[in-house]
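If you are new to this repository, start here. Below is one unmodified record pulled from the training split, so you can see the exact layout before writing a loader.
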Amino acid sequence: MGYKYTYQSYDEKTMAKVAGTNLPVSKKDSNEVLRFIKGRNLDKAVAYLQEVIKLKKPVPFTRYVSDLPHRHGMGPGKYPKNASIQIVSLLNSLKKNAEAKGLKSNSLVIVHGVAQNGPIIPHYGRKIGHRKNIHIEIVAQEIELKEKGKKAKAAPAQKPAQVKQEVKQVKKEAPKEVNEKELISNIKTEMGKVQTKKTEVKK
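And here is the target side for that same chain:
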């Protein structure tokens, strides 16, 4: 009987998945790494985890942080090397699965990742207890990124000579302001003309 995925919203057309079973790594560390890479591009997540394996970049932790030191720019964190090695291997397999389905590998975004307890496997020999054993499942979806629109180019600045010429042209085209005194005198002359015409008609 094969492994059963817990992710319910799986789409065969746009998604690819991978599962690792009986992995000898910490469940706590694995869940923190999976929580960190969720929502990231697949290639960028692999590149970051490779830096974690080299102990160059940490992974922020959100639980069980009482004894963890703070890292620069992220708060509590550590370098989960073993969990990162296993997860990088699964991400590479996930990329191949997506390419086999015809999905674009550079457009894959991790939408699901979880680590679960596997069956209890006791240690062999005189050591008491059981070894770390977990199952990890990861799902990625092909998401096309929208192209950002080009910025509109700013209009070229006008030269001072051009600005002065445009101002003169506007002044010529603009109507002149009406002088009140001239308006009153014009009205009086018109009224005088009308009165003279009336007197002539009476005569």
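Two things worth knowing about this chain: The radius of gyration is 40 Å. The CA atoms of residues 1 and 196 lie 121 Å apart.
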